[in-house]
Amino acid sequence: MKSVLQKLGDGIWVADAQRTILGSHTPIRMTLVDVGGSGFVHSPIPISEELRRAVDVLLPVRFIVAPNRWHHLYAGEWVDAYPRAELHGAPGLAAKRPDLRFHGELGDEPQPAWSGDLEQLLFSAMPMFNEVVFFHPRSRTLILTDLAFNFQEADWGFGGLYIRAAGVYRRFGPSRVTRMFFRDRVAARKLMDRILAWPFERVVMSHGAVLGTDARNALRGAFSWL
Fold first, then answer.
1. Whole-angstrom Cα distance, residue 186 to residue 195?
2. pLDDT tens digit string along 63-119?
3. Which residues pair with 9 in a beta bridge?
4. pTM across the whole model
5. Which member of 9, 96, 168, 188 has the greatest number of CB atoms within 10 A?
6. Cα gap 61→28, rounded to integer Å
7. For the range 207-216, what are the long-range contacts, defined as Cβ-Cβ under 8 Å and sequence gap of 24 or more?
8. Residue 68: which H helix or E strand, with range?
9. DSSP string over 150-209
């Protein structure tokens, strides 16, 4: 039987779910990273007993991370399930979610607790999202949220029509909509150059298929318009 958590590499797993908007199903993904023997939950999805059991078998959850200003809907479920875990959010998210108690704000440098396992960068050129990008050197995996998409499937409901109209159906990269939120292309290009300097071989994102082939060239091409 297929496990709810899929191992991508040494110390990194993903779990997928579906979010329904106006009758249309959109895939969402969380990433679990082993940081010093503890669980780092990136962009949490709805928690279920099956998912919780699978996570608990692997690692004790210590960090719950909402990596941009939009991926926070299920953070409260994980905080309730793991009250001893620390919640960390993107810049500006604490003001948006005053109902949640944040232990720290994500920035351009990793927290000491996970600095030995993850590198990170605040993609500040898109302040509407304030997305924090992570790199996991041990598995050579780049972890994105909404900076890029890779939808290989889409229905014909509202979500599927949006995916097609946004130019991300069976095409890796940012959507036409998110591109409009780039405030400073020069700054964005410099940030993307920093991301491309990481020696990643795989890209995980919160929406769409994991990219495991020629990943750095694919990301470079997807942002060549900057």
1. 15
2. 999 999 999 999 999 999 999 999 999 999 999 999 999 999 999 999 999 999 999
3. 12
4. 0.93
5. 168
6. 20
7. 207/26, 207/27, 207/28, 207/29, 207/146, 207/149, 207/150, 207/151, 208/27, 208/149, 208/150, 208/151, 208/152, 208/168, 208/172, 209/150, 209/151, 209/152, 210/8, 210/14, 210/150, 211/150, 211/172, 215/142
8. none
9. BB----SSHHHHHHHHTT-BT--B--HHHHTT-S-HHHHHHHHHHHHTS--SEEE-SSB-
Q: Residue 117 is encoded by which pair of tokens?
A: 């396992």
Question: pLDDT digits over 22-57, tens only?
Answer: 555 678 999 999 999 999 999 999 999 999 999 999
State which amino acid sits at residue 3: S
Domain 6-222: CATH superfamily, name plus number: Ribonuclease Z/Hydroxyacylglutathione hydrolase-like (3.60.15.10)
Q: Which residue has the tokens 């942002």?
A: 223
Rounded CA-CA distance 49/54 in Å is: 9
Give the integer Cα–Cα distance in Å for 49 and 218.
Answer: 36
The DSSP code for 4 is S
HSE-up of 46 (CA within 13 Å, CB side)?
6
Strands 86-89 and 61-66: parallel
The span from the CA of 175 to the CA of 59, in Å, is 34
What are the residue ranges of helices labelled H in 42-180?
A: 49-58, 75-81, 93-96, 158-165, 176-179
Delimit the domains of the chain by residue range: 6-222
